[in-house]
Amino acid sequence: MAALLLLCLLFLIGGHRSLACPHLCSCQGVQVDCSGKSLTSASMPSSFPAGTNELLLHDNLLSTIPNGLLDDLNELLSVSLHGNPWMCDCGILYLRAWLRRQPAHLTSHLGVNCSSPPSLRGRSVVYLTEEEVLETCHYWYCNLALASLGSLIVFVVMQAALLVALVIFLKRFERLTREAKRTTEESFTVGDDH
Predict the structure, then answer these.
(1) CA 115 to CA 47: how far, in whole Å?
(2) What is the pLDDT of residues 48-93, one digit of tens each?
């Protein structure tokens, strides 16, 4: 019972870091080795064991690091991130900021170079300016807004065309009604004259 209470207390206090070694990685003491496992940003472990002080993520297929993934690794002394195809668009801002916060004596940033876009290929992520990264961002919601605006314009044009067609139909119907009324009146008056 006491062990269960202790586990619940650790979970509630913020012990959300698992003690277990992440799937596809190997752990030896405080070293977590996820290198050369063909990990992608989508298949990355969602957390690493508490107390990890060496994290090996090199030679994978990582293009970004999920936001906040490294923030709680307070005992981290070394991270190897080289040999990954880093995509230096908006998704790299977290990694860039994390690398910039690391002490100068750590070499986590070495070999963390952009693979794309072509304008930034080969550049070190840590030395990118925010403006350079933001220039490469493709804000999907801008494209969505343009598509929505285009759809709205098409919708309004179609509504206007339908309104014009309705007005023309009503005018013709009114004219036909007047002609039918006049023809009916004429046929009654002609019938009365006989």
Answers:
(1) 25
(2) 998 899 999 999 999 999 999 988 888 888 899 999 999 988 889 9
| HEC-encoded secondary structure of 24-88 | CCEEECCEEECCCCCCCCCCCCCCCCCCCCEEECCCCCCCCCCCCCCCCCCCCCEEECCCCCEEC
Cβ(79)–Cβ(57) below 8 Å: yes
- pLDDT above 90 covers a percentage of the chain that reads 36
What does the DSSP 8-state code read for residue 117? S
Task: State how far the Cα of 108 lies from the Cα of 81, in Å rounded to an integer.
Answer: 7
Q: What is the pTM of this model?
A: 0.60
Of residues 46, 127, 136, 121, the one with CA closest to residue 91: 136
- Counts of helices then strands in the chain (DSSP H, E): 4, 6
Please choose, from the candidates 104, 115, 34, the residue with its C-alpha nearest in 3D space to the C-alpha of residue 70: 34
Peptide bond into 45 cis (omega under 30): no
